[in-house]
Description:
Elements: H1 9-27, E1 33-34, H2 42-46, H3 78-88, E2 95-98, H4 102-116, E3 132-137, H5 141-150, E4 153-160, E5 163-164, H6 166-175, E6 179-184, H7 198-206, E7 215-219, H8 237-243, E8 250-255, E9 267-270, H9 273-286, H10 292-302, H11 305-334, E10 340-342, E11 351-355, H12 360-369, E12 372-373, E13 391-394, H13 401-428
Parallel strand pairs: 1-12, 3-4, 3-6, 6-7, 7-8
Antiparallel strand pairs: 2-9, 4-5, 8-9, 10-11, 11-13
Amino acid sequence: xxxxxxxxxxxxxxxxxxxxxxxxxxxxxxxxxxxxxxxxxxxxxxxxxxxxxxxxxxxxxxxxxxxxxxxxxxxxxxxxxxxxxxxxxxxxxxxxxxxxxxxxxxxxxxxxxxxxxxxxxxxxxxxxxxxxxxxxxxxxxxxxxxxxxxxxxxxxxxxxxxxxxxxxxxxxxxxxxxxxxxxxxxxxxxxxxxxxxxxxxxxxxxxxxxxxxxxxxxxxxxxxxxxxxxxxxxxxxxxxxxxxxxxxxxxxxxxxxxxxxxxxxxxxxxxxxxxxxxxxxxxxxxxxxxxxxxxxxxxxxxxxxxxxxxxxxxxxxxxxxxxxxxxxxxxxxxxxxxxxxxxxxxxxxxxxxxxxxxxxxxxxxxxxxxxxxxxxxxxxxxxxxxxxxxxxxxxxxxxxxxxxxxxxxxxxxxxxxxxxxxxxxxxxx
Length: 429
């Protein structure tokens, strides 16, 4: 394929005609494929089907003698906290295991801070001029939705391959007391797959902030979700914050949503002891305890850290081929065209496709018309506004392996066609 950005008018006309024919042939396939969100495939969910028969009618006591059928136990079963403690690198005493959604825990933390403040601080709804959050971009749209729900001002932070622009962050938090939080997906980030370097995590842990109640919302959603044989490790933000005297700064979230059952898993919150006491105090008003039957069910199924790692290996075996198919199709169709670049993540659930500036919305539209649904263009940015209209999130996990190649081809051809259309308009001006 020619480089579209350097084609003359005649060559571009010919290429545009060829692309229209190819696109039309894809439309005639009448596909109905969705790569909008990082949903586990049916094969992945089936890996945990044994959960449906656990823990069993006669198995309702924890190792500590807790009857899981009853109330209480707000922090979660200790043996379950111990199970996740090793991989999350947070002591069981500083860990909460709750319901199925880590996003719900994030929302609740913002809500508690908004209503009552953090550890005796001013309630965020009373902050003069309003509260702001730092938002690395491209980022996770559901984080931004929480901010929107509370009217929190969002400040975009440029993302690099090794994490956010920490100089930008340092300058922002040092002089603005209204900045109360920062969203972070530190490992296999959504959607770029970027992993924060130790130097950047250290900078976030140590930097001076004008707000005493500034919090790192550390969404470690993909901490075990490797796609290669390299199990990438990141620095322990909790330990580093303790080292620099900012032990209350991190709120670390995780879940089994993409490990066991997405709708019936477990979520985790880890932090300082003071922060955990703060969360438990407010959570006890909202609930008299989590679903401990489900916690015991997960313990019986996963057993220990080795069982957890073995399950994640099976996930990798199902996921990695799908990502490989997308990569091969993008390389075959887009390499050398000057139209697009894409990430090659070592883990997580997403590939970021960077298309020609000004064409992302058109690519989404063309893909939809050819039977492939993408996340809306702009979703990885606050307010859904991508200033360059060029970033797309690709989530191949839920498709059958045989369908992934067709979906990737539709997206690639749509990117080429959108670029050719734009170039023709520019030449006509």
